[in-house]
Amino acid sequence: MAKYGVGILGAGWVAGEYVKAFRDNPLTEVVGIYNRTPGKAARLLEAHGVQAREFASDDELFDDERIQIVVSCTSPDARVEHVVRAAETGRHVVIEKPVALTIEGVEEIREAIVKAGVKSVTSFVLRWNPQFETTKQLIADGVLGDVIYAEGDYWHPMSKLYPCYSWMVGKEVGGSAVVAAGCHAVDALRWFAGEIEEVTAFSRGPKINLDYEYDPVSVACVRFENGAIGKLATLLDGETPYIFNVRLFGSEGTIQNNEVFSRKHYPGATGYWKYPTVEPDSGDVAHHPFVPEIAHFMECIEKDVESHASIHDSWKSMAVCFAIDESAAQGGTPVRVAEVAHV
């Protein structure tokens, strides 16, 4: 029998991936979903063959004692209220990104989780992508050596066909290009290359899609605590398909996406060799590895350990995002991440 009841806040695009992941996990059962639009949660549950409750309000969800895990996949403007409430009522939490629209909101969530002692995972879901997992293993095996230079690119021009389009392009709910989308590239570079201590960033307004209420193109030079330097780019307005690049140049080798070069570790190499894998090459949430993410989270709960993507780590990725936005707003003034994160 399932040991953990799951309550989901939001019945939008990404919520269906959580329904499937928790439906198929032997430790969990979806108890119900709350969504502001009546009937939407019921239709989502029916689409995935799940018999569960459509809550009429978030109060009903939080009052249901069968729920031990709360998933926040609403629009980000509601995230802080819901995640804090979940933690304060003793529920473990799954946090969609962005974690919050301000650093103060991120810190409020982190403080609530620390105080409650519950487990958390932030859905920087590409950490479970096979290409990313292989990159992490190559680094652990010493193929990269000491990182010298690193790049992360999140290029994803938004189409009106995307279910999240209406709030994504607005400043009040979307926040910024880096906060709403580029945070994935920020997290990837932290995950692979180490902590970022300072950024210098620039941004520009829309050229193609004039619906954007913020600058949809951003680029930042970054300096890592380990002495490496790098670049982070977010592009939501341009003529290109979805592309997610991660390039890591080290003292003993280089990893560019799913291509590797190292004379030391692969004697005789004259160029990059490419390994076949599942690449992070689609913006469709159905392409993303929610199943292994949730399996990992359940293992963390069962073993009483923190996830590598818990709020105790992911707040650092969000702090870098806000530092990039602050630098760009100041016309490229260098900004130390610690000053933004109040540490």
Give structural notes.
The protein is an alpha/beta fold. The protein folds into two domains: 4-125 and 290-310, Rossmann fold (3-Layer(aba) Sandwich); 126-282 and 317-340, Dihydrodipicolinate Reductase, domain 2. The protein is built from twelve helices and 15 strands. The protein has helices spanning 15-24, 40-47, 58-63, 79-88, 103-116, 130-140, 165-168, 171-174, 177-193, 290-303, 311-329, 337-340, and strands spanning 4-9, 28-34, 53-55, 67-72, 92-95, 120-122, 147-155, 196-204, 217-224, 229-235, 243-250, 254-256, 259-261, 273-274, 335-336. Strands 14-13-12-11-7-10-9-8-15 form a nine-stranded mixed sheet. A six-stranded parallel sheet has the order 3-2-1-4-5-6, sandwiched between helices. β9 and β10 form a beta hairpin. α4 runs parallel beside α5 (103-116). The longest helix is centred in the last third of the chain and has 19 residues, at 311-329. The chain is globular. It starts with a strand and ends with a helix. The model has no long low-confidence stretch (mean pLDDT 96).
Question: Quick recap of the structure?
Answer:
This protein has 343 residues and is of the alpha/beta class. The protein is 35% helix and 23% strand.
